Amino acid sequence: MAFEQRIPRDTSANLFAEAQEYFPGGVNSPVRAFRSVSGPPLFIREGHGSHMTDEDGNRFLDFCCSWGPLIHGHDNPHIREKVIETVVKGTSFGTPNRLGNQLGKLILDNHRYVERIRFVSSGTEAVMSALRLARGVKGRNKIVKFDGCYHGHVDNLLVKAGSGLATLGTSSSAGVTESVARDTLVLPLGDRDLLERTLTEHAGEIACIIVEPIPANNGLLIQDKSWLECLRIKAWKHDVLLIFDEVISGFRVGFEGAAGLYNVQPDIITFGKVIGGGFPVGAYAASKEIMDYIAPVGPVYQAGTLSANPVAMAAGLAALELCLEPGFYEGLAERTAAMADRITGYAKEKGYPLHVPHVGSIFWLAFGNERIERADQIDPANMTYFKTIHHELLQTGVYLGPSGYEVGFVSSAHTDLDIQEAVAKICAAMDVAFSEG
Ligand SMILES: *Cc1c(COP(=O)(O)O)cnc(C)c1O
């Protein structure tokens, strides 16, 4: 169908046309290009609280929240003050600084699953470093990952399953060599027998298993606690390390992330997104014993010019302080559940094939009525519904990430009134999407 624009988008369209002259596809990260939804991407001018405003002056209730970092919404006053107070003293020294200590302490004091941490500048860098660390500790090359989990654009992880079941991976991006891809074994989530067979067949070759304990980059594929426990036990049994990639779930579903939620102890955890309070911060953390493999103590090299820079540390510190306030995560989860359940209820009442799985303050518009736990259970044909819903929501002032495979986030800046408004508008958008025959 053709999508009718009922809001002005000319300024964004013009800026996007200009951006084509500078950036491949007009963007600096691919999903931003709006290729799976209609119209030009919105150029956002500013954001405050739960709302942001584009260059045409349209105001949106934002559930993308910069893809996850903004757990306190836009322009949070506490974070803003800390950042301003810090930035006037200089932005980067390339030396240790007190704010790094403070953020490190705050995290380690309140997270039972890690003892030492290293700050880096993105989630991808955290994952890349964690993999090198695991290989360095074990002295082995291969890694096991799961179909449907995203771990940033690390070479070894831009890999899809080859033909056949427990095959070695094949590259899913030009520029990732087959020799690198072959070090990655890609398995479906939840297949315990195949995991056991793979770990047995490749005994002595595998350094680690990496998993998003709450896969949230390809829909929201909520896993059973028993599967995560199974990963823990099998990793111990076969003497490989278990990495939880908590770049999304860390400090999001609780201060201790998925490790705390499921009470499963991984060997290494990666962080990103929320940890930086809206600035580029990532981190990886583990026991002291494992982290002592990192330079300058140990043989695994890893460094960063802007790592733990004071402004980013100040933002992260301010953000995580707010997360530690009593009842913070409970309140967020309650509001998210209320929203998700009301949308699911409406869909059920109307007979629409949609439900809204949620955990903590993460939610996803899932098509169909069955619980979806694996990537291959998502029917790409349903994404036409998402396209209509996304378009309708833009017209009525609600912003979701521009792809049906992306999850949404509720922030502490979203009020009960915001949630009510979102439910009404999402239900109205479903009416349009599902009545088109
Ligand atoms: C976002 C994300 C990454 C990549 O982080 P960037 O900061 O975008 O490099 C890695 N792993 C997971 C689970 C993520 O959600």
UniProtKB/TrEMBL annotation:
Required co-factors: pyridoxal 5'-phosphate
Bilayer-spanning residue ranges: none
GO MF annotations, alphabetized: glutamate-1-semialdehyde 2,1-aminomutase activity; pyridoxal phosphate binding; transaminase activity
Single GO cellular component term: cytoplasm
Residues recorded as bearing N6-(pyridoxal phosphate)lysine in the entry: 273
Enzyme class: isomerase
The enzyme's E.C. designation: 5.4.3.8
Substrates-to-products reaction catalysed: (S)-4-amino-5-oxopentanoate = 5-aminolevulinate
Pathway annotation from the record: Porphyrin-containing compound metabolism; protoporphyrin-IX biosynthesis; 5-aminolevulinate from L-glutamyl-tRNA(Glu): step 2/2
Compartments reported by the entry: Cytoplasm
UniProt family annotation: Belongs to the class-III pyridoxal-phosphate-dependent aminotransferase family. HemL subfamily.
Subunit structure: Homodimer.
This protein's name: Glutamate-1-semialdehyde 2,1-aminomutase
Source species: Neolewinella xylanilytica
Gene: hemL
